[in-house]
Amino acid sequence: MEPLLAIVVAIGAIVLVLAIFLRFRRGGEDMIARQKRKTIAALERAPSGQREVAPDTARSDVEALLAVPDIRDALQKGRKVEAIRLVRERAGIGLKEAKELVERATRR
Question: Distance of CA 35 to CAs 8, 18, 88, Å?
Fold first, then answer.
């Protein structure tokens, strides 16, 4: 009887972990919205010497990104890696999100 109880407890623990994981998992659309908010908020907090124009919330994340002179210069010179590094520093976002932003900016 004890091995059966151990199996039932193990299965219950697995189900509980899966339920918690699925409960807190966020969809891709939420991630993009969070990324936009974080990018715009970080750019708004940047010292005035690091940006020419305060990004306004109606602008897209790429437009807010291009408002930062250092990032815009790096993109114009074709230095994607430098642009990604600057975006990560200024916006406080991860590598994947910064790369996606830079890719969208270069497609324009």
Answer: 41, 26, 11
Q: Is 67 helix (H, G, I), strand (E, B) or coil?
A: coil
pLDDT, tens digit (0-9, with 9 covering 90-100), for 72-99: 899 999 999 999 999 888 888 889 988 9
* CA 52 to chain CA mean position, Å: 23
Q: How far apart are CA 17 and CA 88, in angstroms?
A: 32
Query: Encoding tokens for residue 97?
Result: 């999100």
pTM listed for this prediction:
0.47
Backbone Cα Rg of the chain: 21
Which has the closest alpha carbon to 71: 108, 31, 106? 106
Type of residue numbered 80: K
Q: Which CA distances in Å does 5 have to 8, 9, 12?
A: 5, 6, 10
